[in-house]
């Protein structure tokens, strides 16, 4: 099969003389446009708040700065999450005040517990949903800070304060959304399609090259698969941006998830085929050329990702046709059968990705995927650590505030809550983010002091105020998109308007300003200290816990105590793979993929065993795996493989016998390599007995 026969054209190769400075100019233009949008959004929010004569209009400007993101999709998703979080947080404060109106200690403790619960939820959720849960936590602390006196006692006008603060925040969200929607058409769909196509193109090309060279590059294939798996895990934020930016994609979530799952399935099939290629005998390598010839020629191209972007619809039929041919291909040995089935699995995953890409780039295309809910148990320990950290940090600041009667203690508590809740899902990067935000706050406080006391007293119009704010926010917005100290400038841009505190009737009390500036820096610094004293799990520990939970699920599957539906098993492990930290090492990821592949092999072998009346032998072998006795399982499976090879059931069952022998051989390979790891935990029988 060649490109001409398949109806596909070879992608154009970039011209050697193409301009190299155009991308740099376009990147700089995008940064300048972002700085201008940030300025316009903040000024529009302030103008509306001033016109409505709200008490603290700067909260509207700060909310607009928070919502304003470089991507319009991320801004819209974050704006919607902030709206929900603001309303929920304000309602929580009203409820706490109603329950503990006369009990200061209970009110402060209840507020800290609420913030901890929101941090717990934020660490269980992902992307915009996680941000919304975090907002519900620290918005409650912010609203409560307005009604608390110098020593932290709840006041009686909490409802009015909650409505006012929620209104100011919502004004900022709406204004930022209007500005972004009117000035940025968005490119999240294009970027997501480009990344999916690049991943599919890399996998298809590298896998095709491995097939062509019969495993000669196996030493380089494992790091390549690890890098590709890391990129697949990083797709989640981009999918979230696309869902926020493009309305029709909200009905195609299952198709997008299927596209990313297809990439993982393709990597799993590549792994199976690579292991077979490495062990093929010389006479088998010549026969393996027939499998390579069935691999679509269009997918072997170095620039195959261009095909995935523009002709994904045509690739669906090409991949499915190759899968059908590989499944029925007559081969001589079980190893070649396993190679053909592994290649078919990789192409099946790529076909699934092509279907998702087509649904992504073509809004008119009908989508056949249905969103299914699968049972999934997340790791609760990181969320529990985050909740404890939030509780301890806020309670410590509350005690310090009550004891010292610090007039700006509420500000310190609010910013501590912002930092310790917002950065908890960042895990390993949480401390560095909190520290960078503390530095940015200090810089913003210094610049805001200069503007407030040296420039604003001579300003009498909103136009002058807007020009002054633009003179600061536009360059800071541009700097926030630079790779150097991004979080510092992002913090500066977000909190500058809040520290400047413009109002209809300005006051220039230097003591009060420096007191509040010190409070916000101390508050964010307390969040950084909280991450030092109660650190999150390291990426290695996080990956180890995910592997441990996956291994327990794997043993339950091997013991027959868990649903043996292939789709449910793979969907559950795809979710766990998405929870893997970005900095996971190659060996934990290889163990995870081995369990994914071994679990799928167990399910397929049980189905094949029914055909040959070998259910008892299969159950005995896999029960040994569940009990942590891989050596015993290897012995049973080797015996079964010999019996199947010696059986003569006619030509009709020849393919099924070869497929069963190939699956057993794959299970033996995995158990031989990872048997010590599979035997490391207590057996599932002991675990269930203790439960």
Care to give the gist of this entry?
The chain has helices at 3-6, 22-51, 58-67, 72-99, 104-124, 127-147, 158-183, 188-212, 218-233, 236-245, 253-279, 282-294, 304-310, 312-327, 334-361, 381-404, 409-422, 430-455, 462-479, 486-500, 510-533, 539-558, 566-579, 586-611, 615-626, 630-646, 654-678, 684-690. With 691 residues, it is mostly helical.
Main features:
691 residues; transport; 3 domains; mainly alpha; elongated; PHBA_efflux_AaeB/fusaric-R; transmembrane helix; cell membrane; 76% helix
- Give the count of structural domains: 3
Give the mean pLDDT. Answer: 81
From the N-terminal CA to the C-terminal CA, the straight-line distance is 56 Å
The percent range for helix content is over 70%
Total DSSP E strands: 0
Largest sheet, if any? none
Oligomer: single chain
General shape: elongated
Low-confidence stretches: 1-7, 9-18, 682-691
SS-based structural class?
mainly alpha
Instruction: Classify the beta-strand content into a percent band.
Output: under 5%
Helix-strand topology string: HHHHHHHHHHHHHHHHHHHHHHHHHHHH
Task: Tell me the number of helical segments per DSSP (H or I, 4 or more residues long).
Answer: 28
Cα gyration radius (Å) = 29 Å
């Amino acid at each position: 099969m060649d490109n001409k026969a398949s109806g596909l054209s070879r992608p154009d190769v970039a011209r050697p003389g193409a301009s190299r400075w155009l991308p740099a100019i376009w990147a700089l233009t995008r940064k300048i446009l972002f700085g201008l949008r940030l300025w316009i959004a903040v000024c529009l929010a302030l103008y509306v708040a001033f016109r409505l004569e709200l008490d603290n209009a700067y909260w509207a400007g700060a909310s607009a700065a928070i919502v304003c993101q470089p991507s319009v999709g991320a801004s819209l998703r974050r704006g919607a999450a902030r709206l929900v979080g603001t309303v929920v947080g304000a309602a929580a404060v009203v409820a706490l005040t109603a329950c503990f109106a006369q009990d200061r200690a209970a009110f402060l403790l209840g507020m800290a517990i609420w913030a901890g619960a929101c941090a717990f939820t934020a660490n269980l959720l992902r992307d915009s949903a996680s941000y919304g849960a975090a907002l519900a936590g620290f918005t409650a602390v912010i609203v409560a800070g307005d009604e608390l006196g110098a020593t932290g006692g709840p006041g009686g006008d909490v409802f009015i304060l909650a409505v006012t603060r929620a209104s100011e925040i919502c004004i900022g969200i709406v204004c930022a959304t209007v500005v972004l929607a009117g000035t940025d058409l968005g490119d999240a769909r294009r970027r997501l399609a480009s990344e999916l196509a690049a991943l599919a193109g890399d996998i298809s090309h590298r896998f095709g090259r491995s097939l062509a060279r019969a495993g000669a590059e196996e030493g380089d294939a494992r790091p390549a698969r690890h890098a590709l798996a890391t990129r697949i895990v990083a797709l989640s934020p981009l999918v979230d941006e696309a869902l926020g930016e493009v309305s029709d994609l909200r009905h195609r979530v299952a198709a997008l998830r299927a596209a990313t799952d297809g990439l993982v399935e393709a990597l799993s099939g590549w792994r199976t085929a690579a292991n077979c290629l490495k062990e093929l005998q010389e006479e088998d390598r010549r026969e393996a050329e027939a499998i390579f010839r069935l691999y679509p020629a269009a997918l072997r191209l170095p620039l195959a990702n261009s095909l995935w972007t523009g002709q994904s619809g045509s690739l669906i039929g090409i991949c499915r046709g190759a899968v059908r041919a590989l499944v029925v291909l007559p081969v001589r040995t079980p190893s070649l059968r396993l190679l053909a089935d592994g290649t078919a699995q990789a192409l099946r995953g790529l076909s699934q990705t092509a279907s998702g890409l087509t649904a992504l780039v073509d809004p008119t295309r009908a989508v056949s995927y249905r969103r299914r809910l699968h049972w999934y148990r997340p790791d609760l320990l990181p969320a529990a650590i985050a909740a404890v950290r939030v509780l301890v940090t806020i309670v410590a600041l509350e005690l310090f505030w009550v004891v010292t009667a610090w007039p700006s203690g509420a500000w310190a508590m609010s910013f501590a809550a912002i930092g310790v809740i917002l950065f908890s899902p960042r895990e390993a990067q949480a401390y560095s983010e909190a520290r960078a935000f503390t530095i940015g706050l200090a810089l913003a406080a210094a610049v805001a002091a200069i503007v407030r006391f040296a420039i604003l007293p001579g300003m009498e119009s909103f136009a002058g105020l807007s020009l002054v704010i633009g003179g600061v926010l536009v360059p800071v917005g541009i700097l926030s998109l630079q790779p150097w100290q991004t979080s510092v400038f992002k913090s500066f841009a977000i909190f500058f308007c809040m520290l400047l505190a413009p109002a209809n009737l300005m006051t220039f009390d230097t003591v009060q300003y420096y007191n509040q500036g010190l409070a916000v820096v101390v508050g964010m610094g307390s969040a950084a200290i909280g991450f030092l004293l109660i650190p999150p799990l390291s990426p290695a520990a996080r990956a180890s816990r995910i592997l441990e939970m996956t291994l327990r699920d794997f043993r339950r599957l091997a013991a027959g105590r868990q649903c043996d539906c292939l789709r449910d098993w793979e969907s559950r492990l795809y979710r766990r793979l998405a929870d893997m930290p970005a900095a996971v090492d190659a060996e934990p990821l290889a163990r995870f993929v081995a369990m994914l592949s071994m679990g799928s092999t167990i399910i397929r072998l049980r189905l094949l065993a029914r055909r040959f009346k070998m259910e008892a032998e299969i159950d005995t072998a896999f029960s040994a795996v569940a009990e942590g006795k891989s050596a015993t399982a290897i012995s049973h499976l080797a015996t079964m493989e010999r019996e199947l090879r010696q059986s003569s059931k006619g030509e009709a069952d020849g393919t099924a016998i070869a497929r069963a022998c190939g699956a057993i051989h794959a299970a033996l390979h995995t158990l031989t390599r990872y048997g010590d790891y599979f035997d490391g935990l207590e057996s599932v029988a002991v675990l269930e007995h203790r439960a």
